[in-house]
């Protein structure tokens, strides 16, 4: 989607915003852009309108190095847009953060992306990479989109590793049954995998079913409680035992990965459980961190890193998003990210990152008994890394992946010290 955010990051409702800055947003496209910027080959599969906003969206995503050759233009439906204020996105349960929640207003009913279905998106295209990244946002757009996500998560020969970010959005599910594509063509309400009108319009059961069909699942501890009434990482894993890898994000505290059959697991079919604490960052804008975390973890997966390494790269990507305005941020250079990810546990816990660290950080030092600070000074650009690959069919929705795989949208006068929120 095309995203409009207040030109001045001041708190307050949308009704009081006088001017907006235009950008791009979409969970899957965010991940695709981050992976491409990190040196991976990424393809975004979607539909946009044959309009000026569609032109802007495709050009902006392509500028990150994402392959947009599979994006189709729809002459009969517009490109979706949304407006939002600064702040964090609410998930329906009280959280520990004191940051204000954002106000979001969507204009995507009848959009080109909401009309996607199995008839319009070929499985061969979506499965062309090593990883296919999907989110619950796309599934909530319409019955046709849900049928598409169900089709792409079917266990069939040739299916790549399928990654799924739950991304529970209550407002989207309210209109899912009657949205565009609900009655149109194969794979809609009358087709295989169609949305049964007896299912909850809020979508928790649908999201749980989709998560169980995937190989790698990301879910926030808060959204699991909001969607399913499940509290705690162990309880979430018990509710979702099917994915080989389950990553539970604890917001400011960190993230826990459950990996079945990994080295270190007590038994061949048991989980290895790895927790990595989040980093301390000087927050500029508390948006986009979840998509960035997913991109960092997927990047580590594509590179064959350890589970701890994948989690650390997820936190570093999230820190890049939190210390930059907007949903998308330049990821750290790979050599810098690798150096920071290789820190010892004590140094990792003392690391603090501020605005600009991804571009200028050349060293780090212990500035006190409980703090490691990244020093910033200009550096020479490094040689580009060898591209590696991810895909995703999706809408540019709010604030995602990649061909090495094949993949797919802050208040206050100054930055506030905070733990990374993912």
From TrEMBL:
Residues 182-202, 367-422 are annotated as: Disordered. InterPro entries: Carb_kinase_PfkB-like, PfkB_dom, Ribokinase-like. Residues 16-89, 204-329 form the Carbohydrate kinase PfkB domain. The keyword rRNA-binding does not apply. Pfam families: PfkB. Keywords: Kinase, Transferase. Residues 385-406 have a biased composition (Low complexity). It comes from the Bacteria. GO terms for molecular function: kinase activity. Belongs to the carbohydrate kinase PfkB family. This is Sugar kinase. It comes from Streptomyces aureoversilis. The lineage of its organism: Bacteria, Bacillati, Actinomycetota, Actinomycetes, Kitasatosporales.
């Amino acid at each position: 989607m095309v995203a409009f955010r207040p030109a001045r990051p001041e708190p307050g409702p949308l009704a009081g915003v006088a001017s907006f800055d235009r950008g791009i947003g979409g969970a899957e496209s965010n991940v695709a852009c981050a992976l491409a910027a990190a040196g991976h080959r990424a393809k975004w599969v979607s539909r946009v309108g044959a309009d000026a906003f569609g032109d802007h969206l495709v050009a902006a995503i392509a500028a990150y190095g994402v392959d947009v050759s599979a994006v189709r233009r729809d002459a009969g439906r517009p490109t979706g847009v949304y407006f939002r204020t600064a702040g964090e996105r609410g998930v329906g349960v009280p959280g520990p953060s004191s940051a204000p929640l954002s106000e979001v207003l969507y204009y995507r009913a009848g959009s080109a992306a909401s009309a996607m279905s199995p008839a319009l998106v070929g499985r061969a295209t979506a499965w062309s990479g090593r990883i296919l990244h999907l989110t619950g946002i796309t599934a909530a757009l319409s019955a046709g989109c849900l049928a598409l996500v169900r089709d792409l998560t079917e266990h069939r020969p040739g299916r790549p590793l399928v990654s799924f970010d739950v991304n529970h959005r209550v407002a989207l599910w309210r209109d899912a049954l009657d949205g565009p594509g609900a009655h149109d063509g194969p794979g809609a309400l009358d087709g295989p995998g169609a949305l049964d009108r007896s299912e909850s319009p809020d979508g928790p059961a649908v999201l749980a079913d989709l998560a169980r069909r995937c190989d790698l699942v990301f879910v926030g501890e808060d959204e699991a409680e909001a969607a399913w009434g499940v509290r705690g990482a162990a309880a979430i894993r018990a509710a979702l035992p099917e994915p080989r890898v389950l990553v539970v994000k604890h917001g400011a505290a960190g993230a826990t990965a459950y990996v079945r059959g990994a080295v270190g697991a007590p038994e061949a079919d048991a989980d290895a459980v790895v927790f990595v604490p989040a980093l301390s960052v000087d927050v500029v804008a508390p948006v986009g961190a979840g998509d960035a975390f997913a991109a960092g973890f997927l990047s580590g997966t594509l590179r064959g890193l350890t589970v701890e390494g994948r989690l650390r790269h997820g936190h570093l990507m999230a820190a890049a998003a939190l210390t930059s305005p907007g949903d998308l941020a330049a990821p750290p250079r790979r050599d810098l990210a690798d150096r920071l990810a290789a820190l010892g546990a004590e140094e990792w816990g003392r690391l603090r990152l501020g605005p600009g660290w991804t571009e200028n950080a050349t060293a780090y030092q212990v500035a006190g008994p409980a703090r490691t600070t990244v020093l910033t000074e200009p550096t020479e650009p490094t040689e580009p890394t060898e591209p590696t690959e991810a895909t995703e069919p999706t809408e540019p929705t709010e604030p995602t992946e990649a061909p090495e795989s094949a993949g797919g949208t802050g208040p206050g006068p100054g930055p506030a010290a905070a733990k990374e929120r993912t």
